[in-house]
Specification:
The protein has 235 residues and is mainly α. It contains eight helices and no strands. The radius of gyration is 21 Å and the shape is globular.
Length: 235
């Protein structure tokens, strides 16, 4: 194992690998590249990580219990109960004001970006950058917010990690990534509004300002979360 890699660095990043300075320390990025090169998931995983040796330095075969674990199946009753709880949780999350705002933003933003793709090819570097940011964050914001709300909804249930820290937990980390993208996307849409003189980018920038307030209220500790590799201790 490469000890220089950062645990969970990809869990709280913005998934913009082309611009990330930590890809050489990110297991997720390295595995993705290896799987693509090998054209086989297992071969790619073994290329990156290998098989862990035992105390004698020998690589043992897969343990028998692994086959039993893979073969585990839920009963029809367990499956039905899991589906019921999943559907109820999804309905609760999708019904929140945060997700309603994020969903409306995503759909309106997608329609505008699709209809104005030529703006992304302008000679103005500032406008090109704004278009790229708006395009990249369009779906990411909704995805990260859904993950944050889902994690918070599971708090106190059997599905939640028993040792979740009040600040360093997955929902705060996901909310922080969403807030970072919301802030930079709001600035990007404001640039696009000024460059085009159109109303829609200005409306989208305002929607993001409103969404930021809602998210910060729902996750008051999100900014205190320290993202592995990105945030210094105490930052």
């Amino acid at each position: 194992m490469n000890q220089d890699r950062i645990d969970f660095v990809s869990a709280y990043c913005d998934r913009w690998c082309e611009r990330c300075p930590l890809t050489h320390r990110c297991s997720a990025f390295i595995v993705t590249a290896a799987v693509s090169m090998c054209e086989d998931e297992r071969a790619g995983m073994e290329l990156v990580f290998g098989r862990a040796p035992d105390d004698n330095g020998e690589v043992p075969p897969p343990p028998d219990w692994l086959n039993d674990f893979v073969a585990v199946e839920m009963s029809p009753e367990e499956t039905a109960e899991w589906s019921r709880q999943h559907d109820q949780r999804r309905a609760r999350i999708e019904g929140t004001s945060i997700m309603q705002t994020a969903q409306a933003f995503m759909h309106l933003g997608h329609s505008w970006l699709t209809a104005n793709q030529q703006i992304g090819e302008t000679e103005d570097a500032v406008v090109r950058e704004a278009f790229a940011v708006a395009m990249h964050d369009l779906i990411l914001i909704r995805v990260k917010l859904h993950r944050a709300l889902d994690g918070k909804d599971r708090r106190g249930t059997d599905e939640a990690p028993p040792d979740d820290d009040p600040v360093q937990n997955d929902w705060n980390g996901s909310a922080k990534v969403a807030l970072i993208s919301i802030q930079r996307s709001s600035a990007a849409w404001s640039v696009l509004a000024g460059a085009t003189g159109q109303d829609t980018p200005a409306v989208l920038a305002a929607q993001l300002v409103e969404l930021e307030v809602q998210v910060a209220s729902e996750f008051p500790d999100a900014w205190r979360f320290l993202r592995p590799g990105f945030d210094p201790a105490g930052g």
